[in-house]
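G.,

No rush on this.
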Amino acid sequence: MRILVVGAGAVGGYFGGRLLEKGEDVTFLVRAARAEKLARDGLTIHSPAAGDFHHDAPATVTTAHVKPEYDLVLLSCKAYDLEQAIEDIAPAIGPQTTILPLLNGMKHLQHLDERFGAERVLGGQCVIAATVDAEGIVRHLNASHGLTYGERDGSESARIAAITRAMEGAKFDQRASRQILQDMWDKWVFLATLAGMTCLMRASVGDIARAPGGRETMLAFLETCRGVAHAAGHAPHEAAMARTLAMLTDESSSLTASMLRDLEGGKAVEADHVVGDMLSRVANGVDATVVRAAYAHLKAYEARRTS
């Protein structure tokens, strides 16, 4: 299987690197500067949990030279880069190419379907805490490194079986799911609440849970998101909701969203894709005061950042 990984940053660099470590045919679609750095320094993953990996010269290609010769495109960009990423991968999409997006939320599926056709686009998600440091090293920050994928209609297929064969044995947790859309909604309900609240409060889950009224505000945000998922036919299952509740109300937790870290670092944030799209789906008459406040806070930050 020929795999094109879009980008060699925290997510693409980690999962693509682990597939490369396993021996899969992996090429990274990167900008010229990143291609030059990878050619000079190689790709390095540092992971206390899963072990380090270095490849002296990973295969790279730039948008000017990419060809439609790949079986799988692993799309791991940020939502605010999706429009450009779609243009970048278009020349790589051949008759048998499958796209596996790992973006948060759901809105990206519509954009990918419109450009490439729904039959080419799988459902997918990943769970990982990683970053790229100033030297370009991919640093895995904890023990979580999971990737889930599946046909959006819940069926089994030859291409899912082929992807599973490619990923089995790589040093990350991989799972083919027969309910990938539900998995994506479960993550979105959790992530929208986590990102919205930690950004709005500029605080960790534990700090919010211990603050007067903090737990109640967190639960109000979560209930709005759960209601959106329910209206879409993807209400979180009892076990998923129990896990989410436990994580978002833990008074000892130092958990924050990566969006808060981006915001505090003056970087771009996925306000529209993670929080704004959730807010746009709230039914008329439903109290979404906290979600609306979080979204307004993020958009005000964006306005100030770009002014």
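When you get to it, here's the other one too:
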Amino acid sequence: MKVLCTSADSLPASMRPDEQAFAFFRTAGREGVGNIANKWRSQLKRKGFAPDSVTWDFVQFCLAACAADLACPRENSADGWTRVIELTIGLHEPMRWVGFEEHLAKMLKLLTGDYWTLHFVAGGEAPPTGKVTSLPHDCVCLLSGGLDSLVGGIDLVSGGRRPVFVSQLAHDDSVKQGKFANRLGGASAHWQWSHGINFAGQREPSTRARSLAFYAFAVLAASRIEGERVQVFVPENGFICINPPLVPGRVSSLSTKTTHPQFIAMMQYLLDELGCRVVLELPYRFKTKGQMLQECRDQSLLQGLACETTSCGRFRTYNRKHCGRCVPCMIRKGAFHAWGPNRDATVYVHDSLAASDKSSGPDDAMAAALAVLTMEERGLDRFLGATLAFAGPDERALYRQVLSDGLVEIEAVLRRDGVL
């Protein structure tokens, strides 16, 4: 599977029949060529963005990887899941990236489970050259519309920080993102962007690389903030950061690695080596979702907004409602249960895990129950296996504890609903 992403002017005169091509930031006007974030570069210029070449090429790299992820259907691979992707990316300063190909291939394999080959060539778009004005912010915080990002924003603002919130446009969640940002920092403290990847043909629905666009937007936002090192906060609870497979069949990329500490560390290494002045922070990597709710700095504000957040992995499948039975929904239910009685006013398609319909997808409740039973009968370490092999001795015990506590929160809901 071959993908080319470059500026419209740098596209070859004739396209290879086995390669999907994309043009950055404008349409190429050629049949079979997709586009990425059409007109976004000119919009950024009008908004006063003038990032350096390192930041801008990082954005182009991330968006290109997202495009390749979407354009390469897994069902066409040899095993129906694992792909072999050859991605050529046009950058503004490609020579900076020479030597990072192997590191990036490993980073993308961790994220998507695929085998990547990367080529960096001249032909990317130049950075926008807007008239830059200083902004009254001191950090960046990702704001997805989910419960964890809401807690992260509340904690930062309550602690005296002045974050700019960055969101990836996501259908109905976009309205929620705007509401949360407005309550926390005002409308001027929020940027919502979309990767805008468009092309003819089949799209891969698993979108394991989609989070790269989120990180690209965050690093771009950080370019507008003064300081030697700008913190980018990624608010995610530790259980989901690690995302341990509940059953042996859910290993590798079958469980998302979007905020996995190993992936974050690999991305931080890249940013540091390129000279990008951004520090990625995982402030809740040793906290469960329930502990995040319990320890949030503004309980009143959290209580008023928590139930409006989105956690469900099948939200679109159920017409913008929480299914109540996927793994993210179970973790959400467990967190609210740990937070206190009668706090969860979320509308679930399936209020009870015991009575939920199994026909629409995997039986996640049973998988969670098996995980809990495995932990009880054989011990936590037998359940975790090599899950924590990435962690050093000083942090392994902390990750082990958060995974244990996270399973306890899920177990409480399973027992409440009569699954266990």
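The first helix runs from residue 40 to 46. The first strand starts at residue 2 and ends at 6.

Enjoy the weekend,
O.
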